[in-house]
Sequence to fold (93 residues):
Amino acid sequence: MSRDAEKTVVVIARRDPVEAMRVAAGITVFGHHVSLVFAHGLLELSPETMEGAELIELAEVAPFSLFDDPEIQDLPAHLFAGLLEKSDAVINV
Fold:
């Protein structure tokens, strides 16, 4: 894939964080740069979320949280707006 075809994609986890992690990791297969933003509240630790966390780590997806989550890097509102502005696509899950 040529560099010109690479896109910057933001996946926003609004309702289903586990599915959002799968989607974010899957998009990297196409060579896109992907950021994952948790916008649903604090991420509950479960076997499914732990599996999703491993998946996004392997896919080198940058996870952020709009909430004060000790497990995920915070993303202040002004930086979130900038991330959305610079992205080529936004996917809400």
Q: What stands out?
A: Residues 47-58 form the longest helix (12 residues).
